[in-house]
Amino acid sequence: MRGIGLVRLDYLPGARIRLVVDLLPPDAIERLPKPQTETIEGVVLPRIALTAFEPSASAKVRMAFTQSLHQLDMPDATTSL
């Protein structure tokens, strides 16, 4: 953690991938991007691009994740983020 150092955190032995996020510089982010997907191991996943260090980055990931669950008709799975 920046300013603190290495920190040991709990982890899950496995997890489902629900979203692909590309971290790009601010000038490479489209204002109104077309929906994109990425296929991994035969599974089609939504894909977004964002700038990692902007204050709204985590909110954008959370929103994209929630939208992807609703598109999969899994609205009550939003608590798993």
If you compute it from the alpha carbons, what radius of gyration comes out, rounded to the nearest whole angstrom?
15 Å
User: What is the distance, rounded to the nearest whole angstrom, between the alpha carbons of the first and last residues?
Assistant: 20 Å
Give the topology string: H per helix, E per strand.
EEEH
Low-confidence stretches: 77-81
Number of strands: 3
In round numbers, the mean pLDDT is 87
Judging from the principal axes of the Cα atoms, what is the shape? globular
Alpha-beta content class:
alpha+beta
Number of contiguous helices: 1
Spatial order of the strands in the main sheet? Answer: 1-3-2
Helix amount: 10-25%
Report the sheet-strand fraction: 15-25%
Major sheet:
3 strands, mixed
Structure write-up:
The chain is of the alpha+beta class and 81 residues long. The chain contains 1 helix and 3 strands, in the order E-E-E-H. It has one helix spanning 57-71; strands at residues 20-23, 36-40, 43-50. Strands 1-3-2 form a 3-stranded mixed β-sheet, covered by helices on one side. The protein is globular, with a radius of gyration of 15 Å. Residues 77-81 have low confidence and may be disordered.
